[in-house]
Structures are given as structure tokens and as C-alpha cells.
Here is the input.
Amino acid sequence: MRELYSPIEPYVTGRLQVSRIHNIYYEGCGNTNGTPVVFLHGGPGGGLVTDFRRFFNPSAYHVVLFDQRGSGQSTPHACLEENTTWDLVADIERLREHLGIERWVVFGGSWGSTLALAYAETHPERVRALVLRGIFLGRKSDNDWIYQSGANAIFPDVWEEFVNVIPEAERGDLMAAYYKRLTSDDEKVSHEAARAWRIWEGSTSKLLPDPKLMERFGEVELALAIARIECHYFISNIFLPSENYLLENVSNIRHIPTVIVQGRYDVLCPMTSAWELHKAFPEAELVVVPDAGHSALEKGTLSALVEATDRFRDAL
Here is the structure.
């Protein structure tokens, strides 16, 4: 069983103006002469945590991490304007060009897997390999499972707290009801909705509940950015032109070495999406972790991800 590499500090941090509004924070770690890899965090709106640097051998990889628009240290905080999937795909390219990187490995989990697929299918010539975890394809059915009907059958106790924020008359479309509250000018209303949204997600994130994770997910400022941006994306079907866009365009990337890591008991991003992606992309290796949920930091998932980056380190 593999562990994360030792904690590491960035050798560089910086900011990049990517639009008239948005300025993104980025950092570089590891070996500047190593294999470049870009880490795409979840959410959308999740932002970086220091452990994300540790999936990669620092002597072998040049690790680039950044906070996507509106999240983490990027500014303006929780901003929805000029914030779409295609804006983020363009930001990845801007950052690659800014850093003078020709091609890189792309690593993304959950929403990061969605963004990694969108980026790779748009710019396959810039991608050396893909490491994907907890596949989310951004379809209406995927969102309905989490926020309307599906996952609630497994976590009815926590679901009750999630729906109690919304009056009964509006529960036929919980996404719309939450969006109205998350974008409200009334701070009390938006904060209550954000906290409930994140507590629901945090409660379903791991196979076994993690009180420390729940405490972090309940922090209002962090919750507001993630909940607002997630709801903004999901209510817009993540700005894709068709329901199965990512599967329909997978032929663009079937030549790219790819590992898919999926927790068998992932409730937020059920294994059916990883399985459908694997069927459309049989060249990709699918690693099913038998005792894991959604989180990248569960032992089996973490180990499989580190094994994947080590393998690509040797191959590339």
C-alpha cells in the first residue's frame, strides 16, 4: 500500500490574469527539470489543499497546481461571472503557455476529472498522460442523483438536513431552489444554504464518516465559494453542448495513456460513470478500489493514484 510523498513547499507561487475579471493563483513544486504535471482540483470551486502536492515524486515531477476561477486564493472570491468549463479549459492553456511547458500529464479527480477530460479532448496534443479519479461526466442524470433523487436513499438522515433548508413547495427542483438562495443578497440565507450544501456533500464523501472533514466542509467562507460555483455549473449542465459530450468526444484521447481510479462505493460519483467511460475508452486502465468511497485520501484510492503517477514517471 503506497503513501503520499513527504510534505513539500512550492519553489514558486504566482498569479496570472486570465480575464478582465479573474486572476488565478498558481504554484510550482518538485523538480523543474522533471516531467510536468498539472493538478486539477475538484468542486468546481474546491481550491487547493497542501496534500495535493504529495501525489507526485518531487524528484521526478514538475508539479503545477492552481486555484480555478473564484476558488482558493484566486480572485474575485466565489465570482460566477465569466466562470464556465470553457473558461477553465482556456485558463489551463494560458497557464501552460505562461510556464513554457510543451506537454504535461493531467491529473484530476471528481470535478477535476471532468475538467481533465474537457481539456484533453480539446487539446490532446498537449497531454502526455491522464490520471483520473472519481469520474464525473456532468450530465443532468449525474446531478439529479446527488441533488434530487438517488444518493438520498443511502443517506436519508443527512438528506433530511439538506432538504429542510428548502420549503416543501420548492423541493421538486432542489437545484433551482438552492441556486436562488446561494446567489441571494441576504448573507444569512446564502450562508445557511452553502453550509447545508457542503455538509451534505461531506457526509457522503467517504466510505466511513470523517468528523474532521465535516468540520472543514462546514466553514462558511469555503462552503460559500464551493456551493455557489458548483450550483452555478450544475444548473447550467456544466456548459457542455450535449448531455454526453465527454463520452461523444473520447475518440480524441484514446491514444493517450490513461489510468482511471474509482472507489467501488463512491456515492457522489457512482461507478457507473467510470464504467461508461472505460467502455468508450477501453485502452484506459480502470482500477476499482474495493473499499473506498469518493475521497482521494482514502487509503486504497490514495495508493492507486500514487502508483499511477509513479508508473507514468517511469514510462515518460
